[in-house]
Design a protein that fits this description.
Helix 2 packs parallel to helix 3. 37% of the residues lie in helices and 19% in strands. The longest helix is centred in the N-terminal third of the chain and has 13 residues. The protein is of the alpha/beta class and 86 residues long.
Length: 86
């Protein structure tokens, strides 16, 4: 096993910038190696995930707020299920 730890690609979808800041800080304090992408609503995240140019930057894990404007967490989940692997 190599001494270099792989960064986990992490996506956080939340309309509260304070929460996003706190989430990033928590990961940093816990020493977790994470490459974090943040989106203000589900629609922004879906657009990113569907864009073929982002194929190499897809997240390993997604954290999402349920209650947001534009596209909430439930709507995101329904649309996300329809995205097919390419």
């Amino acid at each position: 096993m190599s001494s270099e730890q792989r960064k986990v690609a992490t996506c956080i979808i939340d309309d509260d910038p304070i929460f996003i800041y706190g989430f990033k800080k928590l990961l940093q304090l816990k020493g977790l190696q994470a490459k974090i992408q943040a989106f203000g609503n589900g629609e922004e995240a879906i657009d990113f995930l569907k864009d073929p140019r982002n194929h190499d930057n897809l997240p390993d894990i997604i954290f999402i707020d349920i209650n947001m404007p534009v596209m909430d967490g439930w709507e995101f989940t329904r649309v996300f299920e329809e995205i097919q692997s390419q």
